[in-house]
Every structure is written in structure tokens, then in C-alpha cells.
Amino acid sequence: MARIGKRMKELKSKVDRDKVYPLEDALELLGELKGAKFDESVDLALRLGVDPRKSDQMVRGAVSLPHGTGRSVRVLVFAKGEKEKEAEEAGADFVGAEDLIQKIQGGWLEFDKAIATPDMMGQVSKLGKILGPRGMMPNPKVGTVTMEVARAIRELKGGRVEFKIDKGANIQCSIGKFSFGKDKLKDNLIALVEAVVKAKPDTAKGAYIKTATVSTTMGPGIKLDAGALRELVK
Fold first, then answer.
1. Which of 1-10, 74-83, 87-96, 162-171 has the lowest mean pLDDT?
2. According to the model, what pLDDT value does residue 33 have?
3. Residue 4 parent element (H or E)
4. In sequence order, what DSSP letters do the residues of 169-209 get, joined into one string?
5. Bridge partner residues of 42 (DSSP)
6. For residues 69 and 62, what is the distance between their CA atoms, to the nearest angstrom?
7. pLDDT, tens only, 92-137
8. Is the CATH number of domain 17-69+160-232 3.30.190.20?
9. Buried-exposed string 100-129: b where 16+ CB fall within 10 A, e elsewhere
10. Domain-by-domain residue ranges, the chain?
11. In the predicted model, is pLDDT for residue 188 greater than 50?
């Protein structure tokens, strides 16, 4: 425990907490902050200039990262008939209907993402209290309630991430793994920021991206130049 604390202290000493870093410099510095023996995830955190209490200022969406997330995603599909067969052929990890609903109601949650065909949503809605708080509920706004089941499966397994603001108007998403290196992380970061900007509500006023921070799982946050990010994705 003391060894972990010492390593974290060393990592923090490399980052100037009062400095706002240009993107290239931040990713260069990130490459020096290896804090664990495993391949850490790299996250981007954004604070937006919106009011989450207002329904017309909700920010939500999804984006397929150019280089994926580096994570294996277990996909469950609620479907029947031909769409059930399509899901199996497309590589879904779990496919079913009432049987899966009952299994989840019994406490089983051994999957990461869920897709449903529209005709299944009447029954799948019973799982709202279980899947909703975990961010696993199929939703048409992010493309997980669809008849294009095979495409949705490929996107989720290929590095598609969903984002949604929390009560503090923050978004936090993985943009890949430490091992990706600077260039791939930059591509993924820009793709995510572009998607968030595209999802900007018409009613949002003033600076939309207020702050931005990039970090590894075990490392300190590096503040990014939010103004430069805004210019980058215009």
C-alpha cells in the first residue's frame, strides 16, 4: 500500500495542477505516467456549460472511436425470430427474449451492453430499474433499440461508446488504453469531442466545453486547454 502511495506521489509530481496543457503536450506527458502493471484505460472528462436540470439541455449520444476502446464488450440482444438468428450470426454473446428478461430479474448481469428490437421494448421496459442506473438499458437515442441488429453489434464490439451528462454537467468516457500511444489516443479523443459538440443543445449559451481533463486509471488528471479543443473540432 505504501509502495502504491509512493508511486502515485511520483506521478503527481510530474503534473503541474495549475497548468492547462495543449493537447499534444498533455498526451506526451500522459505517456510518462505509467502507474500500474496492467494496461490502464485512458479517460476523458468534460464539464459542459449546460444545465442538466433542464430537459432541453440534456446531452447524450454515442460515437464509434476510430481505434476502438481496447476492451472486450459482451453484448446481449433481446430479439425473436429472424432477428434472433441475425444477432447470433453477428456475434452477440447472449440472445433471447423472455428467458433473458427473467434471468436479469433474478440478478444475472454478466454482460456489458444490451440491444433490443423495437417489438421487444414493451417487455424489456420491465428492466428499467435494473439496467437504467447501470447505463445498460437499450435506448433508441444511442442506437441500441433498432432493427439493424447486426450493425449495432459490430459497432458496440468495435469500439462504440455512449456518453451522457451527470447531475454536475460532466461527461466521462474511456478513449482507449495506455498502450494505444499518443496518436491513436488523440484520434479517439477528437472523435469523442466532436460527437459531444454535435450533441450540443440549441438552448445552451456561452462556452459549451468549460473544462477538459485526461487521465489514466491510476494516474493524476492532466488539464487540457478547453478553448483549443473547441477550435480543434470546429
1. 1-10
2. 82
3. helix 2-13
4. SEEEEEEEEGGG-HHHHHHHHHHHHHHHHHT--TT--S-SE
5. 176, 216
6. 13
7. 999 999 999 999 999 999 999 999 999 999 999 999 999 999 989 9
8. yes
9. bbeebeeeeeebbbbbbbeebeeebeebee
10. 17-69+160-232, 75-158
11. yes
Task: Record the pTM.
Answer: 0.78
Tens of pLDDT, residue by residue over 46-61, are 999 999 999 999 999 9
Say if residues 226 and 207 touch (Cβ distance below 8 Å). yes
Burial of 33 (0-12, 13-18, 19+ CB in 10 A): buried
**Sheet containing 209-216: order of strands:** 170-177, 41-48, 209-216, 222-224
Average pLDDT, stretch 189-214?
A: 93
Q: Topology of 75-158 in CATH?
A: Rossmann fold (3.40.50)
What distance in Å separates the CA atoms of residue 94 and residue 111, rounded to the nearest whole number? 8
Q: Which helix (H) or strand (E) holds 88?
A: helix 81-89
How far is Cα of residue 72 from the mean position of the Cα atoms in its chain?
14
List the beta bridge partners of residue 126.
Answer: none
